[in-house]
Amino acid sequence: MNKKYRALSSLYYLWIVLFIIAPIAMLLYQSFFDIYGNFTFDNYISYFRSGNYIKMTLNSFLTAFLITITTLILAYPFAYFLTNSKNKEFFLLLVTLPTWINLLLKAYAFIGLLSKHGPIAQVFSLVSEGLLFTNPAFVLVASYVELPFMILPIFRALDSIPNEYLIASEDLGASRWQTFRKIILPLSMDGVIAGSQAVFIPSLSLFLITRIIGGNKIITLGTAVEEHYLVTQNWGMGATIGLVLIVLMFVVMSALNTRKDKN
Hints:
Elements (H helix, E strand, L loop, with lengths): L1 H29 L11 H8 L1 H33 L4 H9 L6 H12 L4 H5 L11 H25 L3 H9 L4 H12 L1 H16 L3 H5 L8 H10 L4 H28 L1
Helix pairs in contact: 1-13, 3-7, 3-10, 7-10, 8-9, 10-13, 12-13
Pfam family, one: BPD_transp_1
InterPro entries: MetI-like, MetI-like_sf
Main location: membrane
């Protein structure tokens, strides 16, 4: 059995090397070359000295934070409702269904909804301009795309809370709000942290939705990577920004995991 487990684990390690370590190593190697193929440190110097790149980094953090907060505000009440529903499986299917649809199709569907001739503009009297190519539209669409990845971890955390804890709380005279604040919320924080990781980290590097829904008005590190690889052909600078994104993602994961351990 030990030989069998070692053989299976070797496949796992091979997968990590091929699809995680090797791509990062290639990015690191490429980041030390300029657009002409000369070895240089100028990519890193340009990134940390450029106000535009620092601004893009802060903008990426801000948009990712707004998307995470928006999805959390929407996801927690829905997940709480889901745990008390008699048709959990049906509602879980509805939650996961959007993840089966291609991201590009969902983004283009929102173009019709958010344009000045769309139903949202008609309802909110925005016919003259619409919501398309605005920051609220970008946050709305990104939150819709990421919402299932926030709902599912929170639902699992809430659903795993033993019902005996809630009964004991009621027997001891606690109100519903006290039960929620003292028992349900603390015990569901693991799901909140897991969902925040699942939403915040991908949101740092969004570029497809920023192009389609935000137009050229919303610039993040993800769009900067796309620009350097597909437009300017400066792969070294694109690799540098990609490595910065990876480091930022690890920092965020470490911070959230530290918070999780404290809880």
